[in-house]
Design brief:
Layout: E1 2-10, H1 15-28, E2 32-37, E3 41-43, E4 55-64, H2 68-81, E5 97-103, E6 108-109, E7 114-115, H3 124-134, H4 146-155, E8 157-163, H5 167-181, E9 184-185, H6 194-197, E10 203-207, H7 213-218, E11 233-239, H8 249-257, E12 264-267, H9 275-286
Parallel strand pairs: 8-11, 11-12
Antiparallel strand pairs: 1-4, 1-5, 2-4, 3-4, 6-7, 8-10, 9-10
Helix pairs in contact: 3-4
Length: 287
């Protein structure tokens, strides 16, 4: 039996009733057992069209013999029964969303499904319910537990690190973040592991002027972090680039694959048209 962590959300219709009914339908699937489900958490929408309603989010731990892609198809059938329709608009309002966040410790990337979920490590609205029921579950790529990822968002430095072999990418998206979020460039940190995770020749650093509750609570107080990562950025953005003459592919590959960096958004060159939208939604999800 595989242990699977799910994220559920709704921001249309009778949200709580929909989430409760969806959990019942998941339990009714062949070879699926719901072992734990979280309380419901409210969150503001991130990304997508303006004017959306507030989300209600939850998480569940299931055990199943069903392989990942077939399980995903079964969840999509459930979503459609509650009124979710296919749309080309990203992050549009939805009556029901069921995401496969983790499937045991599998790591895979297909056109249909990426495991672990590529945005779970920095989405507060995912980590809060997940930490309630799966606090010690490890992210198989980053190497941190769900609880530690959430604690990091609440206590770490209000900084974003943009890491890319392309200086043009770093400059362009640093300017975008500065204009969109009032961020400002800052000097690279000097703690011992900074160069390991954020090589100086590949990284630009920005400070987000945050007024969020989590940042305000941690400002000027002990971080509560049980490790030396309080100076780490809250979010790392890895931007692939096809051509980077001064950076060996093996060097970039080593940087990307190194575990222990914390909440990370990785964007590949094939997604260049959506870089700005992805970055903006990620920062909104963190702060």
């Amino acid at each position: 039996m595989a242990t699977v962590l799910l994220g559920l959300g709704s921001n249309l219709g009778e949200r709580e009733a929909t989430l409760r009914a969806a959990l019942v339908e998941i339990e009714a699937l062949p070879d699926v057992r719901v072992r734990r489900a979280s309380e419901f958490y409210r969150s503001k929408p991130t990304g997508g069209p303006p004017g959306q309603g507030e989300f209600l989010n939850a998480a569940a731990v299931i055990e199943t013999k069903t392989p990942p892609l077939r399980l995903l198809a079964e969840f999509q059938d459930i979503e459609s029964r509650y009124g979710r329709t296919k749309t080309n608009e990203r992050w549009a309002p939805r009556p029901l969303d069921i995401d496969v966040l983790l499937y045991d410790d599998e790591v895979q990337e297909t056109t249909m499904l990426t495991l672990p979920h590529p945005r779970m490590s920095f989405r507060r609205f995912v980590l809060q319910p997940a930490a309630e029921i799966a606090a010690r579950t490890l992210h198989p790529v980053i190497g941190w537990s769900v609880e530690r990822l959430l604690l990091h968002l609440n206590s770490a430095s209000d900084q974003v690190a943009i890491v890319s072999p392309s200086e043009q990418h770093r400059r362009h998206f640093a300017e975008f973040i500065a204009a969109r979020f009032g961020a400002r460039p800052v000097d690279r940190p000097t703690f011992a592991t900074a160069e390991q995770f954020w090589p100086s020749e590949l990284t630009s650093w920005l400070k987000i002027n945050s007024t969020s509750d989590a940042s305000t609570l941690s400002a000027g107080k002990p971080t509560g972090l049980p490790y030396a990562a309080a100076a780490f950025p809250k979010l790392t953005i890895l931007l692939d680039a096809e051509s980077a003459p001064n950076v060996a592919k093996s060097q970039w590959s080593a940087v990307v694959r190194r575990p222990g960096r914390g909440p990370t958004l990785r964007l590949q060159e094939s997604e260049a048209a959506t870089f700005q939208a992805e970055i903006a939604a990620a920062i909104e999800a963190v702060w």
